[in-house]
Amino acid sequence: MESTYSPPDRKPTFKDWIEYLLLRSFGFFVTLLPRPVAIRVAWPLGIFACDILRIRRRVTLENLERAFPEKSNAERNRIARASYVNLGVVGMEMLRVSRLNKEKVISLVSLDEESEALHHTLIKEGNGIIFLSGHYSTWELMAARIAATGYPTTIIVKDQSNPLVNRQLTKARQKLDYIITGQSHAIRNVLKALKEGGTVALLADQDAGTKSELFIDFFGEPASTYQGPAVFAVRSGSPLVGSWIHREGLTYRLSYARLDTEVMVNLPDDADEETRIRRLMEIYVRWMEEQIRLDPGQYLWLHRRWKSRPEGEVT
């Protein structure tokens, strides 16, 4: 299966061109730097964005107060700065993606033997694999490492508002050997990829909006949750596997965990589809929270995760 995604063909505005040229200029500068230096540059940039520009700082601290009410303000501020630095690292890695190939991705992101064996075993079963994760560490490299194992890997992308930046980002992702699909064709292309025995890498940790009927506790508070990954798993019979990447100095460690075993799901055989979908997403959200708690500074706290509230909730 090949990528069918084409970035929207909107005519760029003057503002779009300015943003694009600034990004390309900075990106060219970053590619000239040795990677260790480029990663270190992300630290002062992240602190500057957090403490001086204060971009979404209020949202970040409100999220951290919800998630870690037991921590002091100083501890939450430290996590906030680390989260901004991590976002800077993500940016640096993506600006340098033109220097990556399959071999470099494998050397940059280690995958333990047990996880790699699980990947090969599930592929041989012929039902495809749904890898599920969140906006943690450098999530783009996580998907790149999954693809580097050698099996077709599909990702769903959200169009950027700037068409020039969108095209550049698409080229960068294609460099990492993804099969890219847009949101408008996501359901059809994901199910096709799974039917053909391929893998799909999804992120489902952001606010799903007020129309979502699925609210699951995330750090103790109900959060509107996408149910798509569980729907794909239930209807296709594909295994649901948690995928987690963690930055350790200048390299990364990736590991997998089955989220759909009978022991974990613990439902009667006659449970209906809605119940199974909810249970799978509950397992995913609980597993993801456990991973985040190990190093919360690598999670993207800038997103309004608890923006949508359950119908009838008193605020």
Walk me through the topology.
Blueprint (H helix, E strand, L loop, with lengths): L13 H19 L2 H18 L4 H11 L5 H23 L6 H7 E3 L1 H13 L3 E5 L5 H10 L4 E5 L5 H13 L3 E4 L3 H10 L3 E5 L11 E4 L2 E4 L3 H9 L3 E9 L2 E8 L3 H4 L7 H22 L21
Parallel strand pairs: 1-9, 2-5, 2-8, 3-4, 3-5
Antiparallel strand pairs: 6-7, 8-9
Helix pairs in contact: 2-4, 3-4, 5-7, 10-12
Protein model, in words:
This protein is of the alpha/beta class. It has one domain (14-298). Helix content is 50%, strand content 15%. The protein contains twelve helices and nine strands. The protein has helices at 14-32, 35-52, 57-67, 73-95, 102-108, 113-125, 139-148, 163-175, 186-195, 228-236, 262-265, 273-294; strands at 109-111, 129-133, 153-157, 179-182, 199-203, 215-218, 221-224, 240-248, 251-258. The strands form two sheets. The protein has a seven-stranded mixed beta sheet with strand order 1-9-8-2-5-3-4, with helices on both faces. Strands 6-7 form a two-stranded antiparallel sheet. β8 (240-248) and β9 (251-258) form a beta hairpin. α2 packs across α4 (73-95) and α3 (57-67) packs across α4 (73-95). The longest helix has 23 residues, at 73-95.
